[in-house]
Design goal:
Number of strands of chain A: 13
CATH class of one domain in chain A: Alpha Beta
Strand content of chain B: under 5%
Number of strands of chain B: 0
Number of helices of chain B: 12
Strand content of chain A: 25-35%
Helix content of chain A: 25-40%
Structural class of chain B: mainly alpha
Largest interface: A-B, 39 and 31 residues
Oligomer: heterodimer
CATH superfamily of one domain in chain A: P-loop containing nucleotide triphosphate hydrolases
Number of helices of chain A: 10
Radius of gyration of chain A: 24 Å
Strand order of the largest sheet of chain A: 5-6-7-3-8-9
Distance between the termini of chain B: 26 Å
Chain lengths: 305, 260
């Protein structure tokens, strides 16, 4: 389990994290979401003991990272797939990491095999595509067979086949009871990959929950079809709902849930043809939640405004 | 899970050291500069020996002159040390390194052990070979020295040690400054530009300061009988070692404190 408690971090005048707290539990894939510049990478560096927060602390199963005696056996992290000396071969890169934590050379060959790089292991890392580098990064995470895994934007630069592969890897690792934190700024990807989602913006915690919870609790519109749309619309507006006629003879009702709309229809004896709560996409939820928390938001107005 | 020992960190750093091309290239350049310039200088001295000033002939040091290439090779050897640490910052691999070994001072110790071991072996061989070639060139015309003389053996071996200490100075500067080009600039300034600046100081200051310059310490270490205004060979070695310890110590303290 990863615990982040009241972490604040500034770089000079730039505030990266403000009093951020959350927990990441084992056995599920936790998505770590936020717009670019929201502090996801900073949080991961702090969890890894690479950057020191001004306030608060981050622990892994109760221990500070820098107190771990054999860290690769506890935590595997892929922060930047390109953070490898370009002149060093993939195999030597992994051998150096493995040796530092008393991990056998046999294990190096095993992880190379697992990520599909065994055939190119003696090529220099600088010749690798981003996708191959991501695979090498995953291999380095798995060297010590750790219980906690951190991946910072692992999907970036992967082709569709690579994305499907990485999703399967995450699934397998989570099913083995490991704690997995995957950051991304792509909602749609997390909807497919993560079980649980933590959302941050401008360095602050915004919300967390399962993908289902987030999309359901945020859905506040209901699609209604009835035999007498105009009479129903009037009755609903009288209950302070916002009613917007939709193409095809439906009404989009906001401000009342499906149950309340049903009761209004019953009271006024309007026969309903359809009553469908609209489920927000995770993308919509994210845009709504992080509006105002985006570091570099584009303005609504055009450039000639 | 038992904690890995420092030996594991050293073995890991050794794999990293020998698996990049800059390491063998740096050592080859060091050897070529030391031996090649040694040959040029000794050949030049041999051919001008008979026209040389008699006083200069009396003060002539066949050891230091044959090792003069070291004072050029010191730039190549320093770059090996600088790159060994600053490369980790340039490529971002410092983060995986410190994630694997969170006790950061261990990484410094391991790099110091690897760099000292490798450089000492290469530099001593290069110093001895250069010396022997130089004496062979001098033979019959210019007075020669033999490794059987303790002071001569000392000068040759301290020549190798001088290069090793400069590699370590580079390592410390690379860690302290983190940026390769900036670290190389500072290193070159210390060895090359500082002595030029000192020339413009009042002469009484000059004699006091110049003996502390790294290159002066190197010349003292390689002289059979260092001139009066310089330190003795062993004192010079000690002073240079203190520089290295100071820079590496400061750099290690900052490594522990700073964000990676």
């Amino acid at each position: 389990m990863i615990t982040v408690e009241h972490v604040s971090k500034s770089y000079g005048d730039t505030v990266a994290l403000r009093d951020l707290s959350f927990e990441v539990s084992a056995g599920v894939i936790t998505g770590f979401l936020g717009p670019n510049g929201s502090g996801k990478s900073t949080t991961m560096r702090i969890i890894m003991g690479l950057d020191e927060p001004q306030r608060g602390r981050a622990t892994i199963d109760g221990h500070s990272y820098r107190d771990l005696s054999s860290p690769l056996h506890a935590v595997g992290a892929l922060l930047d797939a390109k953070a490898i000396h370009p002149g060093r071969t993939a195999r030597n890169h992994l051998r150096a990491l493995a040796t530092s934590n008393d991990i056998s050379q046999r294990r190096v060959e095993d992880v190379l095999e697992f990520v599909g790089l065994a055939g190119v292991a003696d090529r220099r890392a600088g010749e690798f595509s981003l996708g191959m580098s991501q695979r090498l990064g995953i291999a380095s995470c798995l060297l010590g067979d750790p219980g906690v895994l951190l991946f910072d934007e692992p999907i970036n630069g992967l082709d569709p086949e690579g994305i499907r592969w990485i999703r399967e890897v995450f699934r397998t690792l989570a099913s083995e009871g490991r704690t997995i934190l995957v950051s991304s700024h792509l909602m749609s990807e997390m909807a497919l990959t993560a079980d649980h989602v933590i959302v941050i913006g401008k360095g602050s915690f915004i919300t967390q929950g399962t993908v289902d919870e987030l999309t359901t609790t945020r859905a506040n519109a209901v699609l209604v079809r009835s035999a007498e749309n105009e009479r129903l619309a009037g009755a609903l507006r009288a209950e302070d709902a916002t009613v917007t006629p939709q193409p095809g003879g439906a009404l989009l009702v906001e401000g009342l849930d499906a149950g309340a709309i049903g009761r209004v229809a019953l009271r006024d004896s309007v026969a309903l043809v359809e009553l469908t709560p609209q489920r927000a996409s995770l993308e919509d939820v994210f845009m709504e939640l992080t509006a105002g928390a985006t570091e570099y938001a584009s303005t609504q107005r055009g450039i000639d405004a | 899970m038992p904690s890995p020992s420092i030996v594991s960190t050293i073995r890991s750093e050794w794999i990293k050291f020998r698996s990049v091309r800059s390491t063998p290239i740096g050592y080859v350049v060091t050897a070529v500069l030391t031996i090649g310039l040694g040959i040029l200088i000794t050949v030049a001295i041999r051919s001008h020996w008979h026209t040389m000033d008699p006083l200069a002939r009396i003060a002539f040091d066949p050891v230091a002159t044959s090792l003069a290439g070291v004072l050029f090779a010191q730039f190549a050897i320093g770059v090996i040390g600088i790159l060994y640490f600053s490369n980790e910052y340039a490529t971002g691999s410092i983060r995986p390194t410190l994630a694997a070994t969170p006790r950061r001072s261990r990484v410094v110790v391991a790099k110091v052990v690897v760099l000292t071991g490798a450089t000492l072996v290469v530099a001593e061989i290069v110093a001895i070979v250069t010396f022997l070639i130089g004496q062979r060139i001098y033979a019959g015309v210019v007075p020669t020295a033999s490794l059987g003389t303790p002071a001569v053996l000392r000068s040759v071996l301290l020549g190798g040690l001088y290069l090793t200490l400069l590699a370590l100075l580079g390592l410390g500067l690379g860690l302290l400054i983190r940026h390769q080009s900036a670290a190389i600039s500072v290193y070159t300034t210390l060895l090359l530009i500082l002595p030029i600046i000192v020339i413009f100081l009042p002469s009484s200051w000059q004699t006091t300061i110049s003996r502390y310059e790294p290159s002066s310490l190197g010349r003292a270490m390689m002289s059979v009988a260092p001139p009066d205004q310089m330190f003795g060979a062993w004192t010079a070695a000690l002073v240079l070692t203190l520089y290295v310890v100071g820079v590496l110590g400061a750099a290690t303290m900052l490594l522990e404190k700073r964000d990676a």
